Amino acid sequence: MWTRRSKHQGLYRVAKGLARRFPPLRWLYPGMRVKRYAALAGLGAGLLAYGLARFLPPPPPEPWAWGAALLGLLLLVGGVRAMNRSMLSAFTEPEEVPERVYVRRRLEQGPKVVAFGGGTGLSRVLRGLKEHTANTTAIVAVTDDGGSTGRLRLAYGLPAVGDLVDCLGALSERPALSHLLDHRFDRGEMAGHTFGNLLLVTLNQAAGGFAEAILEANAILNLRGQVLPATPEAVRLGARFQDGSEAVGEVAIRARRGRIREVFLVPEPEEVMAEALAAIRRAHLLVLGPGSLYTSILPSFLPGPLREALAQAPAPLAYVVNLMTEPGETDGYTAYDHYKAIAYHLGRRPEVVLVHTAPIPEGVLRRYAEEERFPVPFDPRPFAVDGVRVITGDFREEGPLAQHDPAKLVRALLGLV
């Protein structure tokens, strides 16, 4: 029996056959709810033209011409509107489209910002930047060797994926995606791993390389910008201490708890992504931090090509000093000590340094003191001697933690552009 469904299948096969020869005819596929509205709009255009033609000389306008022209205009507008809604409904709620288009176009005109670092500090900067620009590039350190990331590095020979996942979630347009990427499994062989970490491992195997996997992740998650590794190679962080001893691996460096003279990558990477170098050249603003000085910020630009690109980039370089010291890493460091370590490893002085100088609540200070973490001391005099501009103020987010507020921080940073 000839049913409605079999009729549609037959029409679909015919339309598909025609579309192979004439691709624009794909709009003739049945069930798309486009042809009917296109026909309605066409009828409206015809009536509108016919009605308006009756006003042209030599014949005088006929009384019904106004009605035909008005009816044609209404049919044309209604048909085009219905056709647009039908097509847009396949992707999103049509009512949301004007707002989304406006936001996207406004953000596309925002400044080009390249932010370096890793972990929580960089992801907080990205959350603030995505409200002002869609031209953010995050260049993320990939030397972490603890927790889930460390296990995956050991099993698959990958760069560290944890901080990359945090930054991918921070730049995503959908808050739900960030929560999904952060989901941590609590049982079985996957216990301790996050969904985002496993996603990057899966993409790496499917794409045949870590650089390709990261680009795939950027495309899948529809970011307001892009997230790139400092290097797609599986490197580790090494540290040379003031007493001449060395340690390799972030976990080992923190456990050593000595005064660090310099850090380096093992082995020295041979590859950086071309997209990262292009973003640095085009940037209006370069941002370092906030985050752990030796295990997040410095490793994000240690690969030679990145250091050279940063040293030659015309954009201003801003460094955001941590609110608190890091035990086993920056014990006793002042804001100026942080700045000097950046300048030494980069070969370029940051033109601007942002320092939080507002009081931190006593309850927060006591909580951090139990972890041997203390506010970073600030003295403006050595910065003045070096001719460095310092921006001070309240950059802390209200709450029980000593963390930078994304909105406050980004307002200060974008004021430099």
Automatic annotation (TrEMBL):
Location of the protein in the cell: Cytoplasm
Species of the source: Thermus thermamylovorans
Annotated GO CC locations: cytoplasm
Record Gene3D superfamilies: CofD-like domains
Main localisation: cytoplasm
Keywords recorded for this protein, A-Z: Cytoplasm, Membrane, Transmembrane, Transmembrane helix
GO molecular function: LPPG:FO 2-phospho-L-lactate transferase activity
UniProt xrefs under Pfam families: CofD (PF01933)
NCBIfam families: CofD_related
PANTHER family according to UniProt: GLUCONEOGENESIS FACTOR-RELATED, UNCHARACTERIZED PROTEIN YVCK-RELATED
Protein name (record): Putative gluconeogenesis factor
Protein family: Belongs to the gluconeogenesis factor family.
Biological processes, Gene Ontology terms: regulation of cell shape
Domain of life of the source: Bacteria
Function text: Required for morphogenesis under gluconeogenic growth conditions.
